[in-house]
Design goal:
The chain is of the alpha/beta class. The protein folds into two domains: 162 residues, 3-Layer(aba) Sandwich (Rossmann fold); 86 residues. Helices cover 40% and strands 11% of the residues. It is built from 13 helices and seven strands. A four-stranded parallel beta sheet has the order 3-2-1-4, sandwiched between helices. It has a three-stranded mixed beta sheet with strand order 5-6-7, covered by helices on one side. Strand 1, helix 2 and strand 2 form a beta-alpha-beta unit. Helix 1 packs across helix 2, helix 5 packs parallel to helix 7 and helix 10 packs antiparallel against helix 12.
């Protein structure tokens, strides 16, 4: 697929000396190490979703390289409504060049099958397309927003990154999620406290086919909840068109009291859900990984997809 015509630039990047300092010398040192590491890559394309991790890498890349850095956002049915527009606006704030590319993971039966290694096929599509566009983008390397804390999670997409030679500057510099958020805040990035927003397909229970219709149902359901003032949330799709809503326990009253309860049920049924449930354990990032057989998790090193 070709590139979109969306372009974002500003005249000249800040240097490390003029970049906004962190709240302490330790964070400032980690900031400078990140910028130096990315400068060592040469010209770079950042796989950029607009979340806090990739935004920090994009800002550091712009600090290091100016217009020799570009942020690239993948667009497909799994991208939640409004995310592209927010990513574009943030890229403008950072000053980095921005491109949107179309990815076609929904054309891959392995992806649609939705086994626990689904993310491998998604990232293979993304990084494969980025690798094929390196000459057109005029870059020497691809960088991701994976941070140090991601190494202990179920991340089959990391194997795809390794196969394409993708660099992980946050991991290389020893930056975990707390460091990333602190650096984003010091840099004045408005996403510094944005909740994690993985792709919509991650809401579909493993073994249930990923389809554009199902991710649309999830997207619209989550948008409905956000419209009622909820910020930290997930709507999980389970067998039989069942919605399992996860929100923090202290937010339960917002959903269980009428008229919102009845309005919610009617709205979700209108989207195609046959059953609407509230998970009494509350919000848990990555809760669908609980469905992966333990032997599959224990038999793999981090970043190696299930077979």
């Amino acid at each position: 697929m070709g590139l979109s015509t969306t372009t974002t630039t500003t005249p000249t990047p800040q240097t490390e000396a003029t970049a906004e300092p962190g709240p302490d010398a330790g964070l400032a040192a980690r900031r400078d190490a990140l910028i130096a590491a990315i400068r060592g890559y040469g010209r770079v394309a950042v796989a950029y979703s607009g979340g806090v991790d990739s935004a920090v890498v994009a800002r550091a890349a712009y600090e290091a390289l100016g217009d020799a850095a570009v942020a690239v956002t993948a667009v497909s049915e799994s991208l939640a409504s409004g995310e592209l527009e927010e990513a574009e606006a943030l890229a403008r704030k950072i000053g980095i060049r921005h491109r949107a590319i179309r990815t076609e993971e929904f054309a891959d039966p392995n992806y649609l099958r939705n086994n626990p290694d689904r993310c491998y096929f998604c990232k293979s599509e993304l990084y494969g397309r980025l690798a094929g566009l390196m000459d057109q983008l005029e870059v020497d390397a691809i960088a991701s927003g994976a941070n140090l804390d991601d190494q202990g999670d179920h991340r089959p997409g990391m194997r795809a990154a390794g196969e394409k030679g993708v660099r992980h500057p946050l991991q290389e510099c020893g930056l975990g999620k707390a460091d990333v958020r602190a650096l984003a805040r010091a840099w004045g990035l408005p996403v510094w406290d944005k909740p994690a927003a993985p792709c919509l397909s991650s809401r579909i229970a493993y073994g249930e086919e990923v389809t554009p219709e199902r991710v649309r149902m999830v997207d619209q359901a989550e948008s409905w909840l956000r419209g009622r003032g909820l910020r930290l949330l997930r709507v999980r799709y389970h067998k039989g068109d069942m919605a399992r809503i996860e929100v923090p326990a202290e937010e339960f009253p917002k959903l269980t009291a009428d008229p919102v309860r009845s309005e919610l049920a009617a709205a979700f049924r209108g989207l195609g859900f046959k059953f609407v449930t509230l998970d009494l354990e509350g919000f848990r990032s990555g809760s669908l990984n609980d469905l992966i057989p333990p032997e599959q998790l224990l038999s793999r090193k981090p970043g190696v997809a299930a077979r």
